[in-house]
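Example for tutorial group B:
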């Protein structure tokens, strides 16, 4: 038996107002599959991942009788690594914590290292090489790991819609992607500390940096795009049809 278990938390609970859809954007379809299914498939097929927890909106787990969404039954049959669906919270931070708590219970009798990759479900085309790079680094070093891409544009600071005389050197700027990963115990400590102090963050790495935990950056991928707006969705649909995301 391995002394390491690797879990993935797929965040799919946001309502996605910027997508201008009348339902959870993760239930929108490209190529006949929902964005959630496309994302689940990437983790299901990756040999580095042992178990998956998908964090979804409560109304998508327990739909009313009029709804035709049968998320729980359909997904668990298609994706054997999917351990459970977890109800999301009010914020991304709350949703991640709910996923971490579910993993803590699922791995309670396991005595080895429990590694967790936290991934935005809207990055549904994450390449397998990115998942493997994050996981391999996490297994070999006692640190957190984040996938990221170097910034290629010139970045300048503005104030009141006017440029200031400050250019930020590109070589020091990287654009964060997901997965963002660390050992379960470290993540639980970081989230508990943030909750105690009422500190909100837009990603998980911010909470780890705040407690002084080392974070390694591994190179992400241009294909690991996040679908946020209708333009993003349409571009992804066209790229999908052109087989851009194929591996």
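The residue assignment follows.
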């Amino acid at each position: 038996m391995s002394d390491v278990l690797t879990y993935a938390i797929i965040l799919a609970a946001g309502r996605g107002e910027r997508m201008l859809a009348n339902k959870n954007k993760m239930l929108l379809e490209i190529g006949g599959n929902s964005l959630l299914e496309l994302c689940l498939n990437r983790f299901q097929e990756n040999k580095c991942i042992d178990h998956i927890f998908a964090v979804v909106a409560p109304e998508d787990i327990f739909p009313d009788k009029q709804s035709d969404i049968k998320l729980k039954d359909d997904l668990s049959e298609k994706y054997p690594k999917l351990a459970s669906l977890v109800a999301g919270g009010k914020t991304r931070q709350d949703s991640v914590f709910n996923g971490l708590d579910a993993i803590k219970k699922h791995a309670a009798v396991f005595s080895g290292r429990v590694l967790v990759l936290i991934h935005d479900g809207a990055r549904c085309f994450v390449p397998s090489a990115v998942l493997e790079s994050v996981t391999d680094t996490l297994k070999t070093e006692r640190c957190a790991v984040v996938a990221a891409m170097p910034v290629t544009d010139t970045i300048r600071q503005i104030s009141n819609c006017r440029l200031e005389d400050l250019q930020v050197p590109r070589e020091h700027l990287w654009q964060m992607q997901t997965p963002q990963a660390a050992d379960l115990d470290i993540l639980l400590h970081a989230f508990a500390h943030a909750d105690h102090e009422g500190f909100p963050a837009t990603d998980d790495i911010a909470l780890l940096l705040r407690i002084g935990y080392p974070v390694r950056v591994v190179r992400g991928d241009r294909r690991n795009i996040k679908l946020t707006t209708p333009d993003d969705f349409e571009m992804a649909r066209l790229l999908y049809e052109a087989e851009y995301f194929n591996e």
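The helical segments are 35-44, 58-61, 71-78, 92-106, 128-140, 184-197, 204-210, 230-241. Compare this with the pattern of hydrophobic and polar residues in the output above.
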